[in-house]
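Homework-ish question, so no full write-ups if that breaks the rules, but can someone show me the predicted structure for this set?
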Amino acid sequence: MNIRLWGVRGSIPCPGPQTAVFGGNTACMELSWGPEDSHVLVVDAGSGIRPLGNQWMRTRFPKGPIKTRLLFSHTHWDHIMGFPFFTPIFIPSTEIEIYGPVTFEEDSLDKVIGGQLQYRYFPVTMAELAAKITYHRLQETQLEFDLGLKVTTKYLNHPITCLGYRFEHEGKVIVTLFDHEPYRNLFITDPQNPDFDQEVFEEGERAAAEENQKILEFMRNADVVLHDAQYTEKEYRKNRTGWGHSSIEWAINAAHKAGVKTLVLMHHDPERLDSELQTFQENYQRLIQQKSAMKLVFAQEGMVF
Amino acid sequence: MKGEELRKVLSAYIDKMPPLPTSIGKILEICQRPNAQPADLNKVISLDPVLLARVMKLINSAYYGLNQEVTSLVRAIIMLGLNTVKNLALSTAVLGTVNADRNKNAALNLEGFWLHSLCVGVTSKLIAKKRNIAVLDLENYFFCGLLHDIGKLPLNNRVPEIYLQALQHCAIDRTPLFRAEEKILEYTHCQAGALIISAWKLSDDILDVVAWHHDPAGYQGQYSDLVASVSIADYFANIMEIGFSGNRFPVKPAPEVFRSLGISWQEVEDLEQQVRQEIEKAKVFLRLA
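A: Not a homework solution, just the prediction itself:
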């Protein structure tokens, strides 16, 4: 089982000379398994899925129809925007099974993803797509795909319903936590506040700690974890709390505690330049050098694990 | 309409049961604030038996397919996020405003009903606190008390004319309301409540409280402390005339019920001031005062 990163950026694509090294495309990961990578699936259709689709048209399509699965972590725009530009959807022989969560009382998955394909936004409508596409709404569950690929899903903490994926195949474990903020006590924690409620405070503390522990178990002993790390801890604490993303420091600590072998930090902030990410990588690697056996990588487009 | 026929009619009504009008305005106000606070949302949902039950039902439903049961609203808000819980509360509240005029001929005054439910919730919790029950379990005593009479809502809203007959019979025959229900409807609010709790897949302790709160001495299950506490709290609310839930002739729980909790009636009566303070706080929050 191997993965290749096609988009590592958060929020919005940010092409340009100052982001060319780490890449400007939004989230997209290709996972392949089986003899000579015979089987493939994709996690998230950020703008990175466009070059992925083009490569498949060159390398896979000549060998036969494309059959794949597309797994969505959630349906925020930066994770679905590449879908209309994924060339295989216009090929009649393509078969795609789409999996993902939907938020309570919103439209169904096909409307949320396919809703981009209407004339006001795009020249081709959903009904005109040639490929055979089927949709499956996902919850916390376990699935088994071809050749014994095991997939476990876990709800994450994000402003809409969001899933993490744990892939296991032939002893190798890969976990995605693309958009995730640590759980925290959302209730009043200051005993001086006149509305402070001791019971609510205690239950909030306990719930947040237990939910964070569950995420840690979800990552337990993984070979590779791809973790949201949009902010530094300082930025997060200053004015990014509640936005649904983690800090670099949180991700490193959590993954280290979970016994992760390689931690790949991604969902880089669109304002982050190559020079900054390069400095981060050197600094944080140095900081954990003596303290953890974990390998730390800041994700770049094209990386393979 | 009575007995089995009545059960079927109530069953069909349960899934679209609106929250109480007392909290609708506040829910709309909180949910429409761009900076809605989790503490406010927790408070307003916790104060409405229907809304609370609906939120807990959704969280534990197949919709989320969670591996373990979530029994606290605080945890639900932390897990599912403010937006999801806010949307749910909002959609339930809107449902309530749409259906509001259906209650014109209702037998029970819903503000009185809400006050009674709240009083039983608060009193159950204070009884548990007095008995040094662990802080984290206190909320469950409150929930069970708040929800104990929920079976009266479908009776009151769906078949108000015949429910009024039961209430009148209670007054004329000087008999407890559940006895009058048995006679007139061949179906009690305890049965209707159990129907709701089962349909919404809430936990067994709540189910037993709702089904048994008028017969705590006969209850043989594992939640006897909860059943006894709510039963005593219910009697207290009726005697103190805090709110009104239709029962003018409550029966005092048997001495063994008090003994099982190691508490005396005098000790319960002494809680009055605290109970009234808690209710006042809730009223101020909902701006009813």
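Now go work out the reasoning yourself. Hint: Chain A has a mean pLDDT of 95.
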